[in-house]
Amino acid sequence: MSIEVKDLGVRDYAETYQAMREFNDQRDKSTEDQIWLLEHQPVYTLGLSDKTEHLLNTENIPVIKTDRGGQVTYHGPGQLVAYLLIDLKRRPYSIKKLVSLIEESIIEYLDDYDIVAKRKAGAPGVYVNEEKIAALGIRVRKGCSYHGLALNINMDLKPFEGINPCGYEGLICTQLVNFKKDISVSEVKKNIAKYLLKHLDKSDGLLSDVA
Questions:
Q1: Structural domains counted in the chain
Q2: Chunked in runs of 10, what are the mean pLDDT values of the chain (211 residues)?
Q3: Which domain, by its residues, includes 22?
């Protein structure tokens, strides 16, 4: 079954979180898998571990508890978020493999810009020069995944200083614009889907705009 890719523009985090859960609850065996591409207004999100000690100085940025894996992270304008709504029961990979495939997609995408990226054992995500450029957090419920990937493109990185990103003290975050000048979220959004689809599904997918 193919994967539909939807461009959701800029969306409120809490509303999108609820929409993901509702999509997962209401889907059935015939529901097409989807990837949602979007940006969020500034927000910190806590994973299931709910370790608030990793919140250092959140100032006026809201903090939302979620049911995804992982620790605390930050979302904001200039970061591309990809939510992966995948029925794993009909695909030949586990949740662990899904995470690996997402990481492979981003590593390959960055490689095409001559940016050498890699994984870190025990620390899901993608790293360039030991700095984190993409964070991952997935939840599987009823055999289907939601939540997903956040790729830093051209954003204000200062809010990451207000947390221990992904629960790692002293972890530095980086972004794509540091390696490719003038890159934009819209440019990445046009291209990133083909890398995700290449690894997650053999179909071409359909990119559509949603009001």
A1: 1
A2: 92 98 95 97 90 87 93 96 96 91 97 96 91 96 96 97 87 96 94 94 49 35
A3: 3-209
